[in-house]
Amino acid sequence: MVLDRREFIRNSTLAGLGVAFFPNQSFGSSIKQKLSIGFIGMGLRGMDHLMNALERTDIQVKAICDIDKERLKLAQDLLKEEGKSPALEFGKDEYDYRNLLELNKIDAVIIATPWVWHTPMSVDSMKAGKYTGVEVSAAMTTQECWDLVNTHEATGTHLMILENVNYRRDVMAVLNMVRQDVFGELMHFRCGYQHDLREVKFNDGVHAYGHGVEFGEKGFSEARWRTLHSLKKNGDIYPTHGLGPVATYANINRGNRFVSLTSHATKARGLHNHIVEKGGKDHPNAKLKWKLGDIVTTTIDTANGETIIVTHDTNLPRPYSLGFRVQGTKGIWEADGKRIYIEGEAAKAHRWEDADKCLEKYDHPLWKKFSEDAEGAGHGGMDFFVLNAFVESAKRQIAPPMDVYDAAAWSSITPLSETSIAEGGQVQHFPDFTRGRWIKRRPYDWIKDTF
Amino acid sequence: MVLDRREFIRNSTLAGLGVAFFPNQSFGSSIKQKLSIGFIGMGLRGMDHLMNALERTDIQVKAICDIDKERLKLAQDLLKEEGKSPALEFGKDEYDYRNLLELNKIDAVIIATPWVWHTPMSVDSMKAGKYTGVEVSAAMTTQECWDLVNTHEATGTHLMILENVNYRRDVMAVLNMVRQDVFGELMHFRCGYQHDLREVKFNDGVHAYGHGVEFGEKGFSEARWRTLHSLKKNGDIYPTHGLGPVATYANINRGNRFVSLTSHATKARGLHNHIVEKGGKDHPNAKLKWKLGDIVTTTIDTANGETIIVTHDTNLPRPYSLGFRVQGTKGIWEADGKRIYIEGEAAKAHRWEDADKCLEKYDHPLWKKFSEDAEGAGHGGMDFFVLNAFVESAKRQIAPPMDVYDAAAWSSITPLSETSIAEGGQVQHFPDFTRGRWIKRRPYDWIKDTF
After folding, report:
1. CATH architecture of B169-364+404-439
2. How far apart are the first and last CA of chain A?
3. Which of A28, B103, B195, B286 is the least buried, fewest Cβ under 10 Å from its Cβ?
4. Which residue on chain B is closest to A341 by alpha carbon?
5. Nearest Cβ partner of B270 from A269, A329, A336?
């Protein structure tokens, strides 16, 4: 997608094309002291971000947007409670967010809307020159992945995918270990989203969890929009919580890249069974044929010869787990069971050790520094760090730790896995969203105590 | 492969073609009281079986075969120690086993030789009318898989694949749970062979483990032959320890079947690194290019809509694990971490429980009955059960629990994964070794206290 030149100049308040090719360099010498943010989407996730933003002294919340007036009111109430000025309100229709984007006084935007809006809103936001933070996953189709990349490259505006799991304390300690070569040469990874979402996908239209078997227009919160993806699509529809950390370990788009994948889905049973069990076999939803296989298994080959197994498993009874494994020539870590084996360091050959000691020893500098700030920030503190990285990157107008190429590559699992499954498991090749520059793009410097 | 009719009649001492189509039915009314067995291959594994055989009162060891005279002597010494008559010796050349097979007084044969001999010897053994037990894996190529099936169908002679892990106590308890519908409708399985074999693949030609980096003609025991497979092939070269139990859970070939797979291999580093570390970078073996990717991931689709992830991981430092997972619509079990979650039975929603209580509750009738006999039988007692099933099936001349179709289907992972990897992950379709009969073949009755 090539932007109209005039539109580009009008919308791009900061950057020339050049910045896209030096994405890690600071643009301009000054760091903004205060960042003015607009929030698009004031659902549960948007409110999480708003609450965390209000803990900071360097953020001004200038505008909020939601098509649901009740959500706007909740957000305004929160601002008031915290002694802040009311924010400008948007949301009179689904495209009113564009008016928010026109505001000159806004530097950055956080998008926490239903998935199908992530890319269109991100594209508009980058065109408007707003430093853009988008919730996961960033894109639904391969074309959308390209839309994000192309818009970034045409406008010079940065986008950050707000993958909070990259900031989980054990995930970051293991990143520290990876960078210090504790695992040796990296070989194999496992990860995924294994989370029984049956009570998220269905509710009674009032309560978020634990009641009813409605969804879509009769549902509340995520059930209003998320569940339709399970009805209509068969693929890994939510890949980034697992894949983000692994992609970071493996320096994807920075000396490495995803090359190809194959995907396999089981039959679909869990959602139908849930409806019948909770709503009775005569409930109208019991007639629906769910397209999403209950467990979707994707295996990725990387340019550097690693493999990654990514799991999507949200319709069956099971405890939560992102199922991380990192395996190299010197050892292996598994999040499940919190266990580790490092050759030469383990007390006994061929015997697991508890990972706690290692995770403490390699605790990430960011966690050492900010663990108190992170407390209570949601999802075990990760939400503090992901917002912090976004804000600090935006204040400097530099590329974020997880940039538009990451957003595109990680999100592209969804359409590629759909095609692979539809073709009976046939191998699919990843587009190279860096246009060949992955061979020289340098790894992001994750091991630091700033952000 | 169609046998010459005369050869068929000459070799087939027991069966007409009919038996192949009623494989679970007893042939003849009498149960042999004593089974005369010939052993082909007196290496470490063959000696395991011999030792366990000598614990039984219903086995007569009539003949032994090995091309290594020292191994024959070890076997004869063992017979003498146990107060048995000496066995006839074979092994003057690689084909002398055929003379063992000509012995009329032998009812059954146990084959524990290097992998490339498994199918040729099994085919010859079935042609000679001997009830055949073959160690894992049974076949190296798709044609070999067919050779086993075709020979069975042409001769009516049975073959059992001696997969001992099917008899592991937790594996059998979980089988009991599967049959009692504890997991609900089965959806997804994981399994594999994750075993650091570096000190098995290399030694000093004298000791089995822990010394030297030689293999092939300069190696001892498994290093003499097993290691070459890692040098020359890239695929899942040892799939059955994981897949045998899972195939049994899923009733593969008995109302279900493997439909297709895709496989992915990492780069090969572990064996080279091991040679350099233990033998120095100037050791001649440090120049070798190893073909086997250190971790091979295979995902299988079944006719009933389940998926199975099979892992092969033998070249890197790591604790041993077969990595079992069984997941259904009602719950999930994982061997790693010994954990289980069954909806409605778990004390807390979304929380793992220790599997011990369940494994005890569903302890398999065979283990309840034979646990004392199994003690000390090797590999935690499993070896007792696999030999017991072989002997009892052979005494009755009936199809064994793990038959020639299982041997073919499970072993076919090796050639199919090789092709998939060579083709960059392309999907491969399984031959239907049952020639369509899987739709009506009845599940084997595993839950009984006889064998």
Report:
1. 2-Layer Sandwich (3.30)
2. 32
3. A28
4. B318
5. A329
